[in-house]
Write a structure and sequence with these properties.
By secondary structure, the chain is mainly alpha-helical. Helix content is 60%, strand content 3%. It has a four-stranded mixed β-sheet, with no helix packed on it. A hairpin with a 4-residue loop joins β3 and β4.
Length: 494
């Protein structure tokens, strides 16, 4: 049957709910310390009309080569800010996030699962993805990975349009965020698993073709070459992914906390628990290797860094939901299942989500940008207007401030255009030595005083909880001049 062009799925109403969330909590996505850095870089890109090749943000690494592989996201933010300020940036990011959840919902729905399982799995996916929901380029990785997973599950082999759309997506992806590597790993592992399935006679060649997918994956890989650094980008991303140790210091790169537990830990327990219970109580069929290999790999990565749990959730959603279907609908809820059959059949024919989501986004954005809430958006919860006023009142005191990874981004934005930082969240740019030296200094490790003197700082803008604050009392040349709940400021006492 033909799709019903005007009919939305239930996922469209989830989309509306997420979009409406921005009216309640617009500041939330600007709290991440990296957002201010992206916005300031966006202004620099628009001012110069060029992709940055050297560092424009710090005084410690000024002029040194920098591979800004998120430049296209920053340029997009810059144009949005120029057109409608932070409210338009906020609406854009909410639309990308909502579209990701809608995409996950539709992939599950088109996989033949019941509506209750689709809603439950989508709900867990939403709660997992919102862990890292901020105005950062990783939003595009979540959106595009959901698309790649949908293409893989939709048909046994790529459709004609996939040969055009996916390479274009990877061209954009290579200039927006480094997450394209995760998608290529997913496709490679899924194809390797499919090969194993064919070797062990679980499937035949007609049911599980390989050649078209190999060709499409190679084409997508070639498409990532279209970026300002060519294959040099691939080398940089590979080195960051495999050798950068300091990245483990970031909150999103810590392992999931199973003692509290955190939402990332709950997501892992949900996925593993469903798979285990489906085999213990319902004798669910064994997974194909094409599902096992990517899920196991991203589970391993997710146990090391909680931000990878989000990728795991997207990749494991369909096979885990099939196991959940067996658990919930083996013999349970027959009355409800019968009542939902007709509705579910119509849902799968619904073809109105895309254009209705576009119309809804434009309408809600037009309303949102005019609300008082939108006009009061702040970048960085730890940099208050009072702090900004104090810093601007004493411009000669802050030429070489020691900043932290938590306040540098908001300071770059709120103190633009001339403010420079000592370090920010670009650990791949500063390198392990600089990052670990910064940690040793701010935590008061052995030799902290020598590191402070070597930095030749004229001021210190610190987080209140850092041990360095107490140690500074032993150095009479440093004077505390400002304090609030989020920041303590010192300068040299002349």
């Amino acid at each position: 049957m033909k799709p019903i062009w005007w009919l939305p799925t239930f996922g469209f109403f989830l989309f509306l709910a997420i979009e409406s969330w921005m009216f309640v909590s617009p500041d939330h996505i600007f709290e991440d310390p990296g957002v201010g850095r992206h916005l300031r870089t966006a202004e620099a890109i628009l001012e110069t009309g060029q992709v940055p090749r050297t560092d424009p943000l710090s005084f410690t690494k000024a002029g040194q080569p920098w591979t800004d592989f998120e430049w296209a996201f920053e340029a997009t933010l810059g144009e949005l800010y120029r057109a409608g300020g932070l409210p338009l940036v906020c609406a854009f990011c909410y639309a990308i996030f909502a579209a990701t959840i809608l995409g996950i919902y539709r992939t599950l729905l088109q996989s033949g699962l019941s509506l209750s399982v689709v809603l439950l799995t989508t709900g867990v996916a939403f709660l997992t993805l919102q862990i890292h929901f901020s105005a950062r380029p990783v939003l595009f990785t979540y959106l595009f990975l959901a698309l790649v997973v949908e293409v893989w599950h939709r048909r046994t082999q790529p459709l004609k349009r996939d040969w055009l759309i996916l390479p274009l997506v990877f061209v954009a992806w290579a200039n927006l965020h480094a997450g394209w590597l995760a998608a290529l790993l997913f496709l490679t592992l899924a194809m390797a698993g499919r090969l194993l399935d064919r070797i062990f006679k679980r499937v035949d060649g007609d049911e599980a073709p390989l050649i078209p997918w190999i060709g499409l994956t190679l084409l997508c890989t070639l498409a990532t070459r279209l970026n300002p650094w060519g294959w040099g980008l691939h080398q940089q991303v590979f080195l960051v992914a495999t050798t950068l140790k300091s990245i483990a210091l970031l909150v999103e790169d810590l392992p999931p906390d199973f003692t509290t537990p955190s939402m990332s830990a709950i997501a892992v327990m949900f996925l593993v628990g469903v798979v285990f219970l489906a085999r213990v109580f319902r004798r669910a069929p064994l997974w194909r290797w094409e599902a096992v290999l990517p899920v196991l790999f991203f589970l391993y990565e997710g146990l090391k860094a909680q931000r990878h749990v989000i990728l795991l959730m997207e990749i494991a959603a369909v096979p885990v939901a099939r196991d959940l279907e067996i658990l919930l609908h083996g013999t349970w809820w027959p009355f409800l299942r019968e009542r939902l059959k007709e509705f579910q059949a119509k849902q799968r024919l619904a073809g109105g989500d895309a254009w209705l989501a576009l119309v809804a986004t434009l309408a809600l954005t037009a309303v949102f940008v005019r609300t008082p809430t939108a006009q009061n958006i702040r970048v960085g919860e730890n940099v208050s207007p009072k702090l900004v006023s104090f810093l601007r009142e004493h411009p000669d005191r802050f030429h070489r401030p020691l900043t932290t990874t938590w306040n540098a981004g908001p300071l770059l934005w709120n103190m633009r255009p001339d403010f420079r930082v000592s370090i920010d969240d670009r650990f791949d740019f500063y390198g392990d030595d600089t990052v670990f030296s910064f940690v040793d200094l701010t935590t008061g490790s052995a030799g902290w005083d020598k590191k402070l003197k070597k930095g030749n700082y004229d001021s210190l803008i610190l987080d209140p909880y850092l041990p360095l604050n107490k140690l500074l009392h032993s150095l009479p040349e440093w004077k505390e001049v400002y304090r609030d709940k989020k920041v303590v400021v010192y300068w040299r006492d002349s």
